[in-house]
């Protein structure tokens, strides 16, 4: 009987302290819900919305016509310690390679993709 009780207690302890906890609670959650944007001289709006700790949405739109050049979801990783990350195309419409790196400095996020750097401002 004491062996059975010991197994039950051990089983409960392992279940309560398991490694299958919600992975959404990572340091990258500080980005969730944030919106970053930039409009260039040619009137293209770049707007990045961080949807979760692993998915962000990028919209690139010609503001004078409303034509969407990019409307895509990206998987991303973010290292809070170095303020750097990588985003990889997930789904939607993209005209680029689909992979970008980014760096955050305060309220500025600099995206590097397809040989271009674009700095967005946190809204």
Task: Please provide a written account of the structure.
The chain has 123 residues and is mostly beta strands. It is 12% helix and 50% strand. It has one helix and eight strands, in the order αββββββββ. The chain has one helix at 2-16; strands at 35-39, 44-50, 55-62, 68-79, 84-93, 99-105, 108-113, 116-122. Strands 1-2-3-4-5-6-7-8 form an eight-stranded antiparallel beta barrel. Strand 3 and strand 4 (68-79) form a beta hairpin. The longest helix has 15 residues, at 2-16. The radius of gyration is 20 Å and the shape is globular. It starts with a helix and ends with a strand. Mean pLDDT is 78; it is low at 1-28.
Oligomeric state: single chain
Helix content: 10-25%
Cα-to-Cα separation, first versus last residue? 62 Å
Structural class: mainly beta
Shape: globular
Q: Tell me the major beta sheet.
A: 8 strands, antiparallel, barrel
The number of helical runs is 1
Computed CA radius of gyration, to the nearest angstrom: 20 Å
Task: Give a quick precis of the structure.
The protein is mainly β and 123 residues long. The chain is built from one helix and eight strands, in the order αββββββββ.
List the helices and strands and how they pair.
Elements: H1 2-16, E1 35-39, E2 44-50, E3 55-62, E4 68-79, E5 84-93, E6 99-105, E7 108-113, E8 116-122
Antiparallel strand pairs: 1-2, 1-8, 2-3, 3-4, 4-5, 5-6, 6-7, 7-8
